[in-house]
């Protein structure tokens, strides 16, 4: 099995020694993505953060030869129930033109590496959507 590490241009690099995603045997797994612009800034609000995260996930999927149409599962984490609506609005917009609904989990967590991060999202997709 060949494993390809995915760290696309156009997004902030990973925080440590890991890839933003990996692709193996037609399956793409992203690392948990936080809302960090390439210039190091963090958007304000859960919806703005989720929109940036999904845009970065698009970059990761594209590097793997996949797209959001191949999304199988979304795991998302927010730091407060108050952030659920913003996250869900961004998720629903991202999935608006996807022909199927993926599995999805949303969890409330106590926090991330920096207090300004409100949302983290990871995706599993296939490179050849059914």
UniProtKB/TrEMBL annotation:
Signal peptide: none annotated. GO terms for molecular function: hydrolase activity. InterPro entries: RutC-like_sf, YjgF/YER057c/UK114. It holds the Pfam family Ribonuc_L-PSP. Its EC number is 3.5.-.-. It is an enzyme of class 3 (hydrolase). The keyword Protein transport does not apply. Keywords: Hydrolase. It comes from Yoonia phaeophyticola. It comes from the Bacteria. This is RidA family protein.
């Amino acid at each position: 099995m060949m494993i390809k590490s995915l760290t696309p241009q156009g997004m902030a690099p990973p925080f440590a020694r890991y890839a933003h995603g990996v692709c193996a045997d037609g399956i793409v797994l992203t690392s948990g993505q936080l809302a960090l612009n390439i210039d190091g800034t963090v958007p304000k609000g859960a919806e703005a953060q989720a929109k940036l995260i999904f845009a970065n996930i698009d970059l990761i999927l594209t590097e793997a030869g996949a797209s959001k149409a191949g999304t199988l599962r979304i795991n998302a984490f927010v730091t407060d129930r108050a952030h659920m609506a913003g996250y869900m609005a961004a998720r629903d917009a991202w999935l608006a033109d996807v022909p199927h609904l993926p599995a999805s989990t949303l969890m409330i967590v106590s926090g991330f590496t920096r207090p300004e991060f409100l949302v983290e999202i990871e995706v599993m997709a296939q490179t050849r959507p059914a």
